[in-house]
Write a structure and sequence with these properties.
Strand order of the largest sheet: 2-1-3-4-5
Strand content: 5-15%
Distance between the termini: 111 Å
Structural class: alpha/beta
Order of helices and strands: EHEHEHEHEHHEHHEEHEHEHHHHHHHH
Shape: elongated
Helix content: 55-70%
Largest sheet: 5 strands, parallel
Number of helices: 18
Length: about 425
């Protein structure tokens, strides 16, 4: 243990010198680091000096030794204080024991007595040091194994969810920050496939365990810029991603992550993802959905990223790609007035990734998502121009284009006419048919 620091406090310089001479500081492993003659001045500096022991007279300028001791122990609770007192101050000095002063010594100062008192303080400080050292060692051990404890707990709640308050408290103990604005949870499970074949083709240290360790590290690195993400490996060794951040487009991220893992690890990757759940008490339900999605190969519609579809599961109906496309196109048609009908929104409705959404729309319509959406809106605009007397801005609201200037430019680009010109042509054609009829 390092030398203990001592501060001497007495308004008589001769008394301070006498104390210095009476004690064998080197033998006791002590060092006098400061002397003061005024209690208030000593108190101003005591927190920065941080002494282990203070030897103070009971009578001081500025404030007496007991006042000083009380204030000092509020600043440094573990400090040891010895009060020096004369016979006529003895009863007053005894009160210092009640405030936590370690000892008091009667003047004149006796070498054996002050040394014995200091030895007692040193023993107490040494015991405190050992306790602190053991406590720190225990904390270091806990910190070292904290990831293991955290993973074990997460595996427990994947099977049996805890109450929300219990889960939050546990995560705080494990130094995991949860989203303060949302308790929403979504879970994905990553499984490495065709591993044996890949390992046989390469060196032996690419074991399945090593591949999963690398995959987990890559996954954590991939989401490192996103807050409120948790990771663990379940009982079967698969990687579990728990997303507590509604702002993270998890489905799109998983699609990209799958390709990265395949490139870096040289093996196939299957990912099962749950629906979004509203709070932490539904973690086990989300995990079960992700497991079901991963195990249900019939639903493998999104190139190895499989999303749990509540309707399909509850009705025990297997959706074909044709049915899926029809559901998507119907949803887009019904929501044509939504100016924010993005690929993300449509993909989330269909429980597929935006990448897969784009591919199947292109395959079945021959158009990109943007082109098909624009065509839907154009056809709806023509229908409204022909069958209603709605004004231009009202038509724009019905087809999800609320900006009148953009609507005008867009419609001319699509048809070659302005809205009014197009309506006039329709009316002229009706008049001609009426005359001919």
């Amino acid at each position: 243990m390092e030398k203990l620091k001592v501060v001497l406090l007495d308004d008589e310089i001769l008394t301070r010198k006498l104390i210095r001479m009476k004690v064998d500081w080197k033998r006791l492993n002590l060092e006098v680091v400061a002397e003061f003659s005024n209690g208030r001045k000593a108190l101003e500096q005591i927190e920065s000096i941080k002494p282990d022991i203070v030897i103070t007279d009971i009578c001081l300028a500025g404030m007496d030794g007991i006042e000083f001791s009380e204030a000092c122990m509020r600043l440094l609770p573990n400090i040891k204080i010895m009060i020096l007192t004369s016979h006529d101050e003895f009863e007053y000095a005894k009160k210092s024991i009640n405030i936590g002063v370690s000892d008091y010594i009667l003047k004149p100062i006796n070498e054996e007595e002050i040394t014995r008192s200091l030895c007692t303080m040193i023993q107490k400080k040494y015991k405190e040091y050992l306790v602190k050292k053991e406590y720190q060692a225990l904390r270091d051990c806990i910190e070292e194994h904290l990831p293991t404890f955290r993973e074990k707990y997460l595996n427990q709640v994947l099977i049996h969810s805890d109450e929300v308050a219990v889960f939050c408290n546990k995560m705080s103990n494990f130094h995991v920050r949860l989203n303060p604005l949302s308790t929403q949870i979504q879970i994905a499970i990553l499984k490495l496939e065709s591993i044996k074949r890949k390992i046989d083709e390469q060196d032996s240290d690419r074991s399945e365990v090593n591949l999963y360790i690398k995959a987990k590290k890559l996954t954590e690195d991939f989401f490192s810029g996103d807050r409120y993400m948790m990771f663990c490996r379940d009982g079967l060794g698969r990687i579990v991603v728990i997303c507590n951040n509604p702002e993270v487009p998890l489905l799109e991220c998983l699609e990209l992550l799958r390709r990265i893992l395949m490139t870096h690890l040289g093996c196939d990757v299957a990912i099962g993802a749950s629906l979004k759940k509203q709070d932490y008490s539904q973690i086990s339900c989300a995990y079960k959905e992700a497991v079901d999605a991963l195990d249900d190969k019939v639903l493998e519609l999104s190139n190895k990223v499989i999303y749990y579809n509540k309707f399909i599961k509850s009705k025990a109906v297997i959706s074909t790609t044709d049915n899926l496309v029809q559901e998507i196109l119907t949803f887009m048609s019904k929501n044509i007035a939504d100016s924010k009908l993005s690929m993300n929104k449509v993909a989330e409705h269909a429980f597929i990734s935006t990448g897969y959404l784009g591919r199947i729309i292109k395959k079945y319509t021959g158009k990109t998502y943007g082109e098909y959406l624009s065509e839907l809106r154009f056809n709806k605009a023509k229908e409204l121009l022909e069958n209603t007397d709605l004004r231009g801005y009202e038509i724009g609201e019905r087809i999800g284009i609320s900006d009148a200037h953009y609507l005008s430019i867009w419609f001319r680009k699509m048809s070659g006419y302005s809205l009014s010109e197009y309506r006039k042509r329709l009316n002229d054609n009706k008049d001609k048919k009426s005359i001919l009829g």
